[in-house]
Amino acid sequence: MNIAKASEAAKQIQILLLDIDGVMTDGKLYYGSGGAEFKAFNVKDGLGIKLLQRAGVEVGVITARQSEMVIRRCAELGIETLIQGREDKRQAFSELIATTGWPLEQIAYMGDDLPDLAIINQVGLGMTVADASKTVCEQAKWQSRFKGGDGAVREAAEFILQAQGKLATLLASYG
């Protein structure tokens, strides 16, 4: 990982796309009796997403699984770009780009496993979590010190905002 190159790429980012399982959550699937499914989201990641949005950086989600919890969490965070139930993330991403016209160099994507790899390699800033698959770690331009669901998205948000010279102002608004 070349931090100077990643920082240079981060200056151009206008959209951060995220995977859910293994990035915004710890990647574990919890099932209760009666078929209930549970996911834990980190509030630090949520604040990082809000900071990005306040700075004018859009946030979206592309995930292979379908979940009402993801719909709820995205609604809570004001995330409007939500693509669920798409195991072929490369195809979902291609369709999104065709629809939005977003320039690849202005997109960051954070994923943790092989289905994320094609997008990580296409975008301006491919990002990953500390506990991602070895192949993803080797190919991402930037890697968090935190595991998925443990504040990795917050660290990614702060990295982008720092590179863009916006972080200090945003943080000062809290003090």
In a nutshell, what does this entry contain?
The protein has 175 residues and is of the alpha/beta class. Helices cover 41% and strands 15% of the residues.
Mean pLDDT: 96
Helical content (DSSP H or I, runs of 4+) = 40-55%
**SSE string, helices as H and strands as E:** HEEEHEHEHEHEHEHH
Radius of gyration: 15 Å
What do these coordinates show?
The protein is an alpha/beta fold and 175 residues long. The protein has a single domain (3-166), classed as 3-Layer(aba) Sandwich (Rossmann fold), CATH 3.40.50.1000. It has helices at 3-10, 43-54, 68-77, 89-100, 117-122, 134-139, 152-163, 167-172; strands spanning 15-18, 30-31, 37-38, 58-62, 81-83, 107-111, 125-128, 142-143. β2 and β3 form a beta hairpin. α2 (43-54) runs parallel beside α7 (152-163). The longest helix has 12 residues, at 43-54. The mean pLDDT is 96.
Topology, element by element:
Elements: H1 3-10, E1 15-18, E2 30-31, E3 37-38, H2 43-54, E4 58-62, H3 68-77, E5 81-83, H4 89-100, E6 107-111, H5 117-122, E7 125-128, H6 134-139, E8 142-143, H7 152-163, H8 167-172
